[in-house]
Amino acid sequence: MTNEILDKSALAPCRRVGPGDARQHHFFGYYNKSAWDRSGRYMLAQQVPWMDAELVPDATARIGYFDLHDNDRFHAVDDTTAWNWQMGSQLQWLDGAPGRQLIFNSRTGDADAFYPGFGATILDVDTGAKRVLPMPVYVVAPNSRYALSVDYRRLYVTHQTIGYSEAGAPFDLPLAPAEDGIHATDLGTGATRLLVSYHDLRQFHPRASMDKAIHWVSHIEINPSSSRVLFLHRWTERVEDETCFLHRLITMNPDGSDLRLLECSDHPLPQLADDFDPAAVGTFDYEKSEYQISHPLWQDDAHIIVWSPHAGKIHYHLYHDSEGGEVRVVGEGVLVENGHMTFSPVNKRWLLSDTYPDARTHERVLFLFDMETGRRHDLGSFYATPDLGKENRCDLHPRWRRDGQQVCIDSVHESQRQMYIVDVSGIV
Prior knowledge:
Blueprint: E1 4-7, E2 14-16, E3 25-27, E4 42-48, E5 61-67, E6 73-80, E7 92-93, E8 101-107, E9 118-124, E10 130-133, E11 139-140, E12 146-149, H1 152-158, E13 181-186, E14 192-197, H2 198-203, E15 214-222, E16 229-236, E17 246-252, E18 260-264, E19 294-298, E20 303-310, E21 313-320, E22 327-330, E23 342-343, E24 350-354, E25 363-370, E26 375-383, E27 399-400, E28 406-411, E29 418-423
Parallel strand pairs: 1-26
Antiparallel strand pairs: 2-29, 3-4, 4-5, 5-6, 7-8, 8-9, 9-10, 11-12, 12-13, 13-14, 15-16, 16-17, 17-18, 19-20, 20-21, 21-22, 23-24, 24-25, 25-26, 27-28, 28-29
């Protein structure tokens, strides 16, 4: 295997989706699901009137889809005020459900809900029928039978970038409550139950650094057969500085049983000194930290790709879902920084990912990595204005079309937040 970087941008034509009207910006959000429906004709998007606004509770995003066979005409189907710039409203197709059904997070106004005011909406695009779930979703199982949920208000305090704004913040939250954590929602009945609590996680292979810290969970993902769950357990004593976050990669069964610890990046934190200045930390220093465990994703039912430190070195690593199982480096020398990685849905040879903006040029690189040859195929470079901050930045967040022939990204390189399709059929 020869690890090298090749410029393949000439073989990967890129086009903007939609007319590019600066009064209407569009984005999908996260990297871990396809924006395309099963037919490949319709592409989900959130439509907003700003490229970079600071989010407030009543900021509205329009939910809809582009018809790629009708000059990218945008069809609006609903609105939501439960969203952020990183993940949108967790908008996605329900692949395991009949017809064209989609799901997205929403503010329900239900003050008696477990997470007051928040839930999720399932919408049948063809009939217009809607029903509301009692909890917002973080991830939906590939079989569309259940979803997993966390408290987005808690995330707004611990990791604002992926939380939902709410009046009255910041909130005084318990550090590791026994009554909250990861919840499961049955998408058929709407029934919910707690799978694992923050108290449970603090007691699972405990570390001294957890005692005074606030705990939360992010990056929850479900394997292709919907039979195992991965997530990042994070904790910190200083929520305002992400370089003080500590991380663990954990897996479990969908009922919360059989917890397995795959990686822990507990490390000394000089940032906790009284004279440390969080303002001195660069926008992307956290994403490029040598202690970061970030963006884990299932390759198949038993293997997980993740940017993580293992055996004292930070790399893209491929973990077997077992405590003490095999861990191997992926792309040594060419995959040298954190990114949003995901495997082709039809050929696990191809790993799609990106980089964060270069500190000097502010360019982000989109690329394919060939797991068989070790070659990195760079598809293009996209400028991101440094005026965007941590919460309103625009990562490429690449995701595949279902046939593995095209990919979609969000980008601001044309001074608009829009979606772009990159054709990779000439490479894959």
